[in-house]
Amino acid sequence: MGAPDRDEDPQITLDGTQHADLEEIERAIMQISWLSQRQFMQLLDEERFNMTLPQFYSLLHLHQMRDPCKMSDLAEATQQSAASLTGIVDRLLEKQLVERTRHVRDRRQVMVVVTPQGSSLIAKIKQARHEQMQAALGHLGAEDIDTLLRLLDQVLLSMLRVLERGDTHRWA
Length: 172
Hints:
Elements: H1 19-45, H2 53-65, E1 69-70, H3 71-77, H4 82-94, E2 98-102, E3 110-114, H5 116-137, H6 142-165
Helix pairs in contact: 2-4
């Protein structure tokens, strides 16, 4: 009696990966994702940063834009409602991390721009996150890091392809 035919064994995928292996990979990715986000939220919540995740992503987008950004564009880019974003920007204003202005030609449009203090805070947060990642991955050698990066890039690319195709029904 030989190996079971792939069509007869639902536990093996087309490429020969065991169903249990896929479950372990999914578990690891979900756990890393959860721990990473939790760790990052704790970092942002520290007294030196005192920031929420939505505030950080809004500030980061403005930092990357450098130029004033319409509130509507910022809401779309950060996938937040206009009402939520108003509160977020208000808190960033209180901390002097952003400035709110009006559009030069259309005074009805509210524009937001990062301040030098906001850009400086982004750099500090990135440095603190870098230190966290160094602590988590510092035990790996250069070859392991290269392999990890290569594999993560492949997984990310594949996940993006599945998302773009709308192939999510396969995962249910």
